[in-house]
What we know:
Blueprint: E1 5-7, E2 13-15, H1 18-48, H2 54-82, E3 91-92, E4 99-100, H3 102-132
Amino acid sequence: MSQPRVATDGGVARPQRLYVHMQKNFEDQVVKREEEEREAKLRELKQSRQPVSRSGIAAHQQKYQDILRQKKEQLKNQRDGLGYGSADNVNQNDYGGETEHPTEHAKKGFKAKILADVKRQDREARFKDEMQF
């Protein structure tokens, strides 16, 4: 690599000192890149620490309220399905318009749960008996 020549006052060009040339290369290649990376990080920090706008707060609040409303509806639907709802909640059967009180519906669900538990326990007992042989 040839060294660049620098003109002096007398008009005679002489080579630039090697350490000056290496220093300029270092500044161009390493220092500038590091400064650009540092500035990029600072821009990111500045952007992330900007105050939240009112519209952003309102959108977050609306989203949170929607989630709460959905959870309340799910809970209400679960309670209504089990018959824990109000006494005004009367379910119509398909048998000639007869009505069934929600507590009766809950009793049927409770019986089904007990039956499922008994079946599971019976299966586990049979499995244990098979494992012993």
